[in-house]
Design goal:
Blueprint: E1 5-8, H1 17-31, H2 37-57, H3 63-77, H4 84-95, H5 105-111, E2 116-121, H6 125-133, E3 143-146, H7 147-150, H8 157-167, E4 175-179, H9 182-192, E5 195-199, E6 214-216, H10 222-226
């Protein structure tokens, strides 16, 4: 096979983050007695949260601060008298239950059993660990590299140094990173000098200037890139 080690992003690559986020937000608002809260404020939350995660990628905020700051901003913007720290704790607890997978993720990982598989994710350690270990993919990955534990995040080269050390590897030519984010996964792989594969299921136009080596629309297409033949459709 062309690649020995596959580094998978987690959210929106193998795991359905949208479903996990919806589950967490709905249950967190239910927890504070606001059964329509998620419906009422999801769009506002997503805008705020996405902006803060971009700031995290750029080193402008820490993951610890992000946990609460997104709810500080959400509640201030919508004049909600809620405790952001308590709400964040409930939200993260429910987010950790979000083990929903992208279609084809289980089958892909089964077909790639001959490769060394690892997760490399920007995220909160207890949440990501809970989601991965609670999913059907538990036990699939040799290492789960989480930015909060590594002390740096994609696209920084430091998290790749951390991953390579954990995996005990040094040959970049046999490593491929697969992810949905051009600015995080793909730029990170380019920065580190490893091959990249952009998972783009919606066929979004790439206007970022970041050029992945490969692009796929469905997960099973990765098998041809890795050099593994299969009957998967």
């Amino acid at each position: 096979m062309k690649y020995d080690v596959i580094l998978f992003d987690a959210d929106d690559t193998l795991f359905d983050y949208g479903m996990a986020e919806s589950h967490a937000l709905s249950n967190a608002f239910l927890h504070v007695g606001m059964p329509t809260g998620a419906e009422d404020y999801a769009a506002s939350y997503q805008e705020i949260n996405h902006a803060l995660w971009r700031d995290l990628e750029q080193g402008k905020i820490s993951s610890a601060a992000l946990r609460v700051e997104r709810f500080n901003r959400l509640f201030a913007a919508n004049a909600l008298e809620l405790d952001p720290e308590a709400f964040s704790e409930a939200y993260l607890r429910f987010l950790g239950e979000g083990t929903f997978l992208i279609q084809g993720a289980i089958e892909l990982c089964e077909e790639l059993a001959g490769c060394r598989l690892a997760i490399i994710t920007n995220g909160i350690k207890e949440v990501q660990t809970s989601r991965i270990q609670g999913s059907p993919l538990s036990g699939t990955f040799e290492q789960i590299i989480i930015s909060e534990e590594a002390g740096c995040q994609k696209p920084e080269t430091g998290i790749f140094d951390y991953a390579f050390a954990k995996l005990g590897i040094s040959d970049k030519e046999k490593v491929l990173i697969v992810g949905d984010s051009l600015t995080s996964d793909i730029q990170g792989g380019i920065n580190y000098g490893i091959d990249t594969c952009w998972f783009n299921p919606l066929g979004k136009e790439n206007t970022s200037g970041v050029q992945p080596k490969y692009e796929i629309r469905v997960l099973s297409e990765l098998l041809d890139i890795v050099g593994k033949t299969t009957d998967l459709q």
